[in-house]
Design a protein that fits this description.
Largest sheet: 2 strands, antiparallel
Structural class: mainly alpha
Strand content: 5-15%
Strand order of the largest sheet: 1-4
Shape: globular
CATH architecture: Orthogonal Bundle
Radius of gyration: 14 Å
Number of helices: 4
Amino acid sequence: MTKQLLSDQPVSRTTDPVTSHLAEIEINATGQRATQQQMILDAVVANPGLTSSELTRKLKTNDRYVAARRLPELRNANLLTNGEPRKCMVTNRMALTWDVVSFQRELF
């Protein structure tokens, strides 16, 4: 059984190569995208106000692209919002921070 996506917006653009569309089909069919979305949402709930790179470090993974791809999907689904940009503790650059949408807080 495949997990339910928190955001089902397309992740490949019509101008992307066919390989991107095939990858999207696979990540959706296997439930990997839904698993990643839930993992990222849980990480933001537990650690509000972090940047994408800081969340990646908290998750103890080297794949910063998981957070970087799933965070905007969750924002577009009105589950997350951006906080004030600040200097990231990992990259030492200005970066967006992430937080749970206020009306969603009661659910967690």
